[in-house]
Amino acid sequence: MTRAPYRNILVYLDGSEESMTAAMYAILLASSSKARLHAVYVVNTKALGDLVRSRIFVDQERNEFLADLKKDASRHIRHAERLAASKDLQITTAALEGSPHKEILSYVKRNGIDLLVLGSVNAIRSRRDELTSENDRMLRTSPCPVVVVRDADDGIWSQFEEA
């Protein structure tokens, strides 16, 4: 019997519609290849720290915003769990804190991930965008293959509903 090309697939959730589309694609891919699916949301505490250091936020505002971000992470993880359950697929989820690209790459290494699934990488309009794009950093530094999901015509949503 031939081994499936992927045993452990990770989808990165960031709360965007593109990351939810990537989650649907990852669910379909994991189902068809009998792979284990992981979904991770990273609360970007590094960016929050930068806002406090820049005096855009004071500590109390940071704490309130962090609590809101953690609620968002839980909501998006629950949504991914519901999507997976709708296809009778088990999913391992985690909400982490830190710099998203560092946390995702660390998770990839710790958990033997052999495919990383990302939502669309935003168009880079400036050198600053390139340096700050978390998805772009993951794409460039991942130790495993990366699939970037683009769904301009809602084809993945249709496939997901039909599967």
Give the topology, please.
Blueprint: E1 8-13, H1 17-33, E2 36-44, H2 45-53, H3 59-86, E3 91-98, H4 100-110, E4 115-119, H5 127-132, H6 134-141, E5 146-149, H7 155-162
Parallel strand pairs: 1-2, 1-4, 2-3, 4-5
What CATH calls the topology is Rossmann fold
Order of helices and strands: EHEHHEHEHHEH
Give the terminus-to-terminus CA distance.
25 Å
Helix % is 40-55%
**Average pLDDT for all residues:** 86
CATH class: Alpha Beta
The CATH homology group name: HUPs
Q: How does the major sheet shape up?
A: 5 strands, parallel
Poorly predicted regions are 126-131
Strand portion, in percent?
15-25%
Number of domains: 1
Number of strand elements: 5
Based on CA inertia axes, which overall geometry fits? globular
Q: Order of strands across the biggest sheet?
A: 3-2-1-4-5
Assigned CATH architecture = 3-Layer(aba) Sandwich
Helix-and-strand structural type: alpha/beta
> Rg to the nearest angstrom?
16 Å
Q: Count of helical segments? A: 7
Summarize the structure.
The protein is an alpha/beta fold and 163 residues long.
